[in-house]
Design goal:
- There is one protein chain.
- This protein is α+β, with helices and mostly antiparallel strands.
- It has a single domain, classed as Alpha-Beta Plaits (2-Layer Sandwich), CATH 3.30.70.20.
- The protein has three helices and four strands; from the N terminus they run E-H-E-E-H-E-H.
- It has a two-stranded antiparallel sheet.
- A hairpin with a 2-residue loop joins strand 2 and strand 3.
- The longest helix has 9 residues.
- Bound molecules: iron/sulfur cluster (SF4) (2 copies).
- One iron/sulfur cluster binds next to helix 2.
- The site of one iron/sulfur cluster has 14 residues, from helix 2.
Length: 97
């Protein structure tokens, strides 16, 4: 799964390092190894590896991460096909994003 790449330079992933408490949850939950802990703070080590699944933001206890659904969110992509881009949203129950 870590070898799976998406479009370069388009991820909406943002990390507010000043809020990070260094718990390491983002590093644990990210399926693509996007985060790494350095000096007890999370850093984005591979932003182009992000598929915008939302797991890191959902699980960060300090709300230090923001990401909106996009290129890699399967639920969002399917909804744009079915409902159109305006009505599509990420975060469906059981989607993990
Ligand atoms: S989950 Fe949040 S608080 Fe924990 S290391 Fe990652 S960014 Fe920092
Ligand atoms: S949104 Fe998903 S793929 Fe992107 S950094 Fe967070 S956990 Fe990793």
């Amino acid at each position: 799964m870590k070898d799976f790449r998406y479009l370069e330079g388009v991820t909406t992933l943002e990390l507010k390092e000043e809020k990070c408490v260094g718990c390491g949850v983002c590093e644990t939950v990210c399926p693509h190894g996007v985060f790494r802990l350095e000096n007890k703070k999370a850093v984005i080590a591979d932003s182009d590896g992000c598929m915008e699944c939302g797991s890191c933001a959902l699980n960060c206890p300090a709300s230090a991460i923001q990401v909106t659904p996009g290129v890699g969110c399967a639920a969002y992509i399917i909804q744009t096909w079915v409902k159109g881009k305006e009505a599509a949203a990420c975060g469906g129950e059981g989607t993990g994003c």
